Amino acid sequence: MLQRLLAEPPFRLVTREIIRRTSRSTATRALWDASERPPYLLGLVHAAAQARQQGVPQICAVEFGVAGGLGLRILEREAASVRRDTGVDISVVGFDAGVGLPAATTGDYRDHPDYWQPGDFPMDVAKLRASLSPGTELVLGDIRETLPRWIVQSQPAPVGFVSFDLDYYSSTIAALEIFSHPAKRMLHRVPCYFDDIVAFVAHRDAGELLAIRTFNAQHVGAITIDRWHGIRQGRPFDHPYLEQMFVAHDLDAISSTVLTRGARELALDH
Predict the structure, then answer these.
(1) Could you tell me if 210 and 222 are in contact, meaning their C-beta atoms sit under 8 angstroms apart?
(2) Is 156 exposed, middle or buried (0-12, 13-18, 19+ CB in 10 A)?
(3) What is the pLDDT of residues 28-39, one digit of tens each?
(4) pTM for this structure?
């Protein structure tokens, strides 16, 4: 606690606590990191703003890697708050193996076998399901099988925010299909949080960072995932999680929107 007081001007810490306790504005709380999971609230607030800009009434917030379920419960609570503030309906879904971390599949350094072990982060499925809101969906099984099936059969709305916490490169690259599947639906720009890119063992040739690089190389000109540029501007606190925030840009959809607008303006000129 002393270190935090020395590192941050006390008035800002006091202000954040007051906002956390009294403010009902999700935009204000997101600005001041007044949330149990600041990256979740920040992503949801910007997703809702993007949805309103596009005229999309409902979006979906996704957590890959649920484990004990704390993050998913926070996600559903913050989604309800953002829904109340913006009028954008937000459905929540969590994906997990359901049996703890599965065995690594790459057989080499890319899945960080020196850091992650099969069975890490176990889940009490019955207990977790009982604690979730009725509208929150929990999808269990191998992500390579469950995600494509969900996209085709169950996805309720365009994806607006995604948290990636699957640890492995192999699991993360499979989860990124949420942005590339032929039947995918997403906002033009989707805020993303990558949990496992700031550890001492993290590097660009393994884990989530490699998954992002691989995905971008495979989808040049169609989809790109880039760091959330300018995210630190105007924020009272410069927290480490800001480095973990990215944006998935649907370049095809953005191009189509520009072309459509241009065609409409050309028609009006004539």
Answers:
(1) no
(2) middle
(3) 999 999 999 999
(4) 0.90
